[in-house]
Amino acid sequence: MSTAYERAGVSQTAASSAVEALARSLRGIDTGRASRVVPLPGHYASVLRLDDGAGLALSTDTVGTKMVVAERLGRYDTIGIDCVAMNVNDVVCVGAEPLAMVDYLAVDRADPDVAGAIGVGLAKGAELAGIEIVGGELAQLSDLINGLDLAGACFGVVGLDAMVTGASIEPGDTVIGLPSSGLHSNGYTLARSVLEDIPLDDDRLGRPLGDVLLEPTEIYVKPILELLRSEVDVHGLAHITSGGLNNLLRLDAGVAYEIDDPLPVPPVFELIQERGEVSDEEMHEVFNMGCGFCLVVAPVDETAAMKRLRAHYPDAKPIGRAADGPPGVTRRQ
Predict the structure, then answer these.
(1) Which of 252, 234, 237, 247 shows the shortest CA–CA distance to 294?
(2) pLDDT for 25-50, tens place per residue?
């Protein structure tokens, strides 16, 4: 039986198989010297060993079909924030400090006004993340695309002895959830498919639907770096994107996660589920459902972590814990 996401045009199963096929080919690369790759299979960013003490963290991502909403509205000044967010939020998950990005804008035709507006968002996102954007590429590909595509790659630094991989997570550790600002930049093919007959100026969610769908992805970098530099011993960091809370399983920890007090679900997700008749399970597989980032800390550090995080996110809260058992995520609604 096909899922709502598959009917909208996206197969997560096929995507996983395609990524594995690509990775299989790349694993055979022979540079003629010892690999600098720090083994972090499935993690949010890759790390290369620069020397005995320092690592270079790298990640790349795109804003996906959220760009279609920007095109329909003719509003491009926030989509760059999403591009920055999707990259820096991944890099910080290994405990790295994001330093810089490069961007890639593919267009069917070059438009200085559109490019300038996208640049406004990129600059704002860079300031929110505390990074620089040091270059990029604009490609005119009218034979390949009809519209625009925006992607980026982020670079950061991390002490090899300060990496956060999840390996120190133990049963009983607290899982803390930070609220999302909305859909962020995942699941838009499904969201657009089931909401396409609702005008973008419809205000049933309290403001125009177009504004809700274009709400920029939250950038969590500065609060997370502040916590990493504090007395709190952070055991795990997870950017909650496509895959939902199952992204916790990308951490290097042989534990189960019991989520018994999740963050509230914003109304836009309820609207998508109702209009598309999407199951609870699939909603949690495709969307962040109101939780954009998770941290795992020991119970002894929970109070200190919450004090620091709530200075930035008043609605942050413990949402569950790590537990004995085979790796998996269980949720209680």
Answers:
(1) 237
(2) 877 888 899 999 999 988 999 999 99
CA distance 177 to 290: 9
For residue 221, which phi and psi values (nearest 5 degrees)? -60, -55
Angle, helices 79-91/66-73, rounded to nearest 10 degrees = 160
Q: How far is CA 114 from CA 20, 149, 269, 303, in A?
A: 35, 12, 29, 46
What is the maximum span of the chain, computed from C-alpha positions, in angstroms? 60
> In the chain, which segments carry CATH 3.90.650.10?
174-331
Helix, strand or coil, per DSSP, at residue 48: strand
Burial class (CB within 10 angstroms; exposed 0-12, middle 13-18, buried 19+) of 57: buried
Q: Is 108 exposed, middle or buried (0-12, 13-18, 19+ CB in 10 A)?
A: middle
% the chain with pLDDT above 70: 97
Q: How far apart are CA 15 and CA 78, in angstroms?
A: 27
DSSP labels for 205-254? Answer: TSS-HHHHHHPPPP--HHHHHHHHTSS--EEEEEE--TTGGGGGGGSS--
Kindly report, as residue ranges, where domains of CATH 3.30.1330.10 are found in the chain.
31-162
**pLDDT for res 1:** 53
Fold entry, domain 31-162: 60s Ribosomal Protein L30; Chain: A; (3.30.1330)
* 171: number of Cβ within 10 Å: 14
DSSP state of 263: P
Its CATH architecture, for the domain 174-331, is Alpha-Beta Complex (3.90)
